[in-house]
Design goal:
alpha/beta, Rossmann fold, 3 domains, 5-stranded parallel sheet, 19 strands, 34% helix
Length: 346
């Protein structure tokens, strides 16, 4: 798949038959809905696109996630939810016989997934678990992290549902599972295995379950959602409603670059233009233009007040910056301004 931004002459909801949609920062933020998420997803369904919500959050069961989405005017069934807890359980089964003991550090979603995979859930390192399954839950504290560390020190296999360092909430960014896993790793010196994004494991499980022809990953984080899309050879749409910004897009390393960029989930309902190389080093998209001169990004003159014009400026900047870096140049980060800030609420 192309290393740059892609063009789509038709709305993405018509080009792709399945959307693998992240939750935190895309469909909701904490317990609050993200503006236009319901509109975008409803419109996508109307155009024939199926949805699977793929989340690195392992604390809750699919039914609980589906109920929250439904309450936020995004009607969802449990079968349309794929969690990192389910992926972690699948990873356990890749080398651990059923019936073994697993110390679970996390919420109900992870405990249920591990039990359903055929393991005996224990809560103490003294129960001699063969593995530790760790996922985020608000109630996880020092005592649980200590038990995990004791078990890993004694040889238990450490499996993390995901390694996200932060978690978007209605009040801001809070420590994510990766931060909690980091405490266990710091205590033991043992690096965990993880099935969560950026591993494409969950995406592939969701595509297989749905029997999809061509799937589109939709996320707000370049280092997890979009990196997973790249590593799994899926097209990825970055929406500017969560962690990563439009400036982050311009500065993205090749393995984390999106294929499409949109302000919010309404981006599923429109066609997308890709930037094109023009003369004198300029890259253009719509009426916007950008180029890199001696490692510094330059933006074309003109007003970019509409949402579409701001997004085109981001796309042009990505085209210029990515080409410069891919051709061996070094881009000066300080030359890249915040872009489309009002679109992402920054």
């Amino acid at each position: 798949m192309s290393g740059g931004l892609l063009a789509s002459a038709t709305p993405l909801a018509e080009r792709y038959d399945l959307a693998l949609v992240d939750l935190d920062g895309v469909a909701y933020r904490g317990h609050e809905p993200i503006p236009f998420a319901s509109d975008g997803l409803a419109g996508a369904r109307e155009r024939g696109m199926r949805l699977v919500f793929v989340t690195n959050n392992a604390s809750r069961e699919p039914g609980s996630v589906a109920a929250q989405l439904t309450e936020l005017d995004i009607p969802t069934s449990p079968e349309e939810v794929m969690t990192a807890a389910q992926a972690a359980a699948a990873l356990l089964r890749s080398r651990l016989p059923q019936g073994e003991r697993v110390l679970v550090v996390g919420g109900a979603g992870l405990r249920t997934a591990v039990r359903e995979a055929g393991y005996v859930v224990v809560e103490s390192a003294d129960d001699a678990p063969a593995a530790v399954a760790q996922g985020f839950a608000p109630e996880v504290g020092w005592a649980q992290l200590a038990e995990a560390a004791y078990a890993v020190e004694r040889g238990a296999w450490h499996v993390a549902s995901n390694l996200d360092l932060s978690l978007p909430t209605a009040r801001g960014f809070a420590p994510g599972n990766g931060s909690l896993v980091g405490a266990v790793r710091a205590a033991t010196g043992v690096a965990p295995d993880s099935a969560g994004k950026p591993s494409p494991t969950m995406y592939r499980m969701a595509v297989e379950r749905a029997g999809a022809r061509e799937a589109l990953v939709v996320g707000d984080r370049l280092d997890t959602d979009l990196a997973g899309a790249r590593s799994g050879d899926f097209a990825g749409l970055h929406v500017l409603t969560g962690v990563s910004s439009a400036r982050d897009d311009v500065l993205a390393v090749p393995g984390e670059r999106p294929h499409y960029i949109g302000a919010d989930l309404r981006a599923l309902l429109v066609a997308h233009e890709a930037p094109a190389r023009a003369g004198d080093g300029w890259w253009t998209c719509g009426a916007a233009s950008a180029r890199v001169v001696d490692g510094a990004l330059e933006l074309g003159r003109g007003r970019h007040t509409s949402d579409d014009a701001q997004l085109d400026l981001v796309r042009a900047a990505c085209g210029a910056a990515w080409a410069w870096v891919d051709e061996g140049g070094a881009l000066e980060p300080s030359s890249v301004p915040e872009l489309a800030a009002e679109l992402s609420g920054r």
